[in-house]
Amino acid sequence: MPDLDQDGGWLLTLDGTLQSYVDLTDPTHLEFEYTRRLGHLIDALAPAGQSLEALHLGGGALTVPRYLAATRPGSRQRVAEIDGPLLALVEERLPWRAPGVDITATVADAREALAAAPAAAADLVVADVFHGSRTPAHLTSVEFLRHAAAALRPGGCYAANLADGPPLAFARAQAATLRAVFPQTCLVAEPSVLRGRRYGNILLIGSDRPLPVRELSRRLAGDPFPARLCEGEELTKLVRRAEPVTDAGAQPSPPPPAGAFSVG
User: How far from chain centre, in Å, is Cα 201?
Assistant: First the structure.
């Protein structure tokens, strides 16, 4: 069951798993490391203040949509969240509607919403979907990513928040899957996660045009929780012999170690 606790900001937990942090007085406050990395990507995608058209798969407490609305006024955003009671709780306790904020949230399966999205209309598609603490299998395949590519306009960007740990088999396969669909790709994670020393969040980014890797790398390196960006040959070495995932062989992400995303 979803639960909200206030400690400065609002902390959303779902069945004991940390999901989102929202500061209603400052939507630019990104508490969790993976949301900070998504924030850096949003900042690097276009000139400051330029509005974007975004589709968010997975809503949580709408932390990232709130950030985009605050930093890029006039952005039009749609959110697909499969958990209706969660969305109702967030709307009641953490309302996002305000003058000038164009965020529409609906109860929908992420893949179905993506398949039904207008073609070549989005500047950004963000996939941040977890069933409990695992990414569902039907959101890990080449077929799924082809829907994302079709929803993006030329130069648009796809970003997926995933999680994995040693030996990074899931992350390698997901990077191979991304590279099978998007000509330009990169991966972002904490160095200890990349070295296979611990479980953690991994951000995969793809586009049909060159990504702002230099600017994004600068922002990631200067963050209080620094992360590394892998691209090109370095990403090839990380992927090794991993093959792209198709619907026929798709599996959910591996379960996290006990306590990895839990409260307390």
Answer: 10
**pLDDT averaged over every residue in the chain:** 94
Instruction: Give the domain ranges of the chain.
Output: 31-248
Give the CATH architecture of domain 31-248.
Answer: 3-Layer(aba) Sandwich (3.40)
Contact 121, 153 (CB under 8 A): yes
C-alpha span between 126 and 158 (Å, rounded): 6
Which stretches of 67-209 are assigned E, i.e. beta strand?
A: 76-81, 102-107, 122-127, 152-164, 184-189, 200-207
- The count of other CB atoms within 10 Å of the CB of residue 55 is 26
8 A C-beta contact, residue 79 and residue 62: yes
- Which residues on adjacent β-strands are paired with residue 200? 164
Instruction: Say which residues have a Cβ less than 8 Å from residue 90's Cβ, sequence separation at least 6.
Output: 12, 59, 60, 61, 62, 96
Q: What is the pLDDT of residues 186-217, one digit of tens each?
A: 999 999 999 989 999 999 999 999 999 999 99
Q: Please tell me the distance from the alpha carbon of residue 211 to that of residue 30, in angstroms, as a whole number.
A: 23
Query: Distance between CA 187 and CA 171 in Å, rounded?
Result: 9
The pairing of beta strand 152-164 with beta strand 122-127:
parallel
Q: CA 88, 21, 187 angle in degrees (round to 5)?
A: 110
Q: What contacts 58, CB < 8 A, 6 or more positions away? A: 80, 81, 110, 126, 127, 128, 129, 130
- The answer to whether the predicted template modeling score (pTM) of the entire model surpasses 0.85 is yes
Can the peptide bond before residue 212 be classed as cis, meaning omega within 30 degrees of 0? no
> What does the block give as tokens for 64?
């990232």
**What DSSP designation does 134 have?**
B
